[in-house]
Write a structure and sequence with these properties.
With 310 residues, the chain is α+β, with helices and mostly antiparallel strands. The chain has helices spanning 18-34, 36-42, 47-54, 74-87, 89-108, 111-117, 237-240, 243-272, 285-309, and strands spanning 126-129, 134-139, 142-152, 160-167, 184-190, 195-198, 211-221, 225-227. Strand 2 (134-139) and strand 3 form a beta hairpin. Helix 4 (74-87) runs parallel beside helix 8 (243-272), helix 5 (89-108) packs antiparallel against helix 8 and helix 8 (243-272) packs antiparallel against helix 9.
């Protein structure tokens, strides 16, 4: 069972002003909106969008202040992701991925790796895949990573991959622990040491660039892996005891809340253009009844993660 979070103010960061972060999102919101269609055609965020987001340092929002992060509470991190998503679903999704994987890396990697990936003026961003469709083979000094993975959202804008892989038992088969479970490790390596394969042709969120990628004999230092299924937090243990799934849930909840709020606002604005005579959508009491019910359900759903994390 997860340890309870400490709720006193001293536990969360004090160096980053949250209201200033939210104001920054409001300032860049028009940039995110104006470039959304171009980003969809491009299949990634264009330079204007990416530069607007960089100052938020989303990969560092949950990392501790002692390693260069903002150390935001989970509720504030969720609200930040929600705010970005309201302006652009793709920008919000990439921000969510960078934030969640940044949190996992900050939580579970040893100090020697943290010293290289975080702190000071370092601005690494993380992307990858948590499904182990590759293998790690133990060699002198670390591991060799081989395999192919899908859905690497935000990898075009990342500096390091975060990749789940099965540990090779030395015969090409997955190694198992004393309980007979396969051992899954999460490996980190520079993005430019991988092959970016493309293959992202969706109806929406094209700009997330959630492409396939591959690794061929990429050397992973020993301190750049952690056991993804059994990892113990190395710092901020009360918060990071939420684990990989819990941390991912914070980000996904923020994205869903922001996207659903924007969808309903768009529907309402459209309906208001269809008024003036009976039979039009904006004149329908039934439509506005159903709309109000949908908005109430959205608001109730948004309260659940916020109350759970408060």
């Amino acid at each position: 069972m997860n340890a309870p979070l400490k709720h006193e103010n001293a536990y969360w960061g004090t160096k980053t002003d949250f209201s200033s972060l939210m104001e920054q999102v409001r300032k860049i919101g028009p940039v995110l909106e104006e470039n959304s269609q171009d980003n969809e055609k491009l299949g990634r965020l264009n330079e204007a969008t990416f530069e607007a987001l960089k100052s938020l340092r989303m990969s560092h929002i949950f990392a501790g202040e002692d390693i260069g992060g903002a150390q935001l509470s989970p509720t504030r991190g969720l609200q930040l992701i929600e705010a970005i998503t309201y302006y652009s679903g793709a920008a919000g999704w990439i921000s969510m991925v960078h934030a969640c994987i940044g949190a996992m890396s900050a939580a579970f990697l040893p100090d020697t790796a943290i010293n290289r990936l975080f702190g000071g003026d370092v601005d690494n961003r993380f992307s990858g895949q948590g499904t182990p469709t590759g293998m790690l083979k133990k060699v002198d000094g670390g591991y060799l990573l081989n395999g192919k993975w899908s859905y690497a959202s935000g990898i075009y804008h990342a500096t390091f991959t975060h990749t789940a892989a099965l540990l090779d038992d030395g015969t090409g088969q997955p190694a198992k622990d004393e309980n007979g479970n396969v051992i899954v490790l999460c490996a980190h390596a520079p993005v430019d040491e991988h092959d970016l394969l493309g293959n992202w042709h969706s109806l929406g969120l094209q700009a997330t660039g959630s492409i396939d990628y591959a690794a061929k004999d990429v050397l992973i230092p020993e301190d750049m892996v952690f056991p993804i299924l059994t990892a113990e937090p190395q710092r901020m243990k009360e918060f990071f005891s939420l684990g990989v799934v819990g941390l991912a849930s914070i980000g996904h909840s923020g994205w869903a809340i922001g996207a659903s709020r924007r969808i309903l606002d768009e529907v309402a604005q459209y309906a208001l253009t269809k008024t003036g005579r009976a039979g039009l959508l904006g004149e329908s009491d039934k439509f506005w009844f159903d709309f109000g019910r949908a908005d109430a359900l959205r608001a109730r759903g948004a309260c659940l993660p916020l109350r759970s994390l408060a």
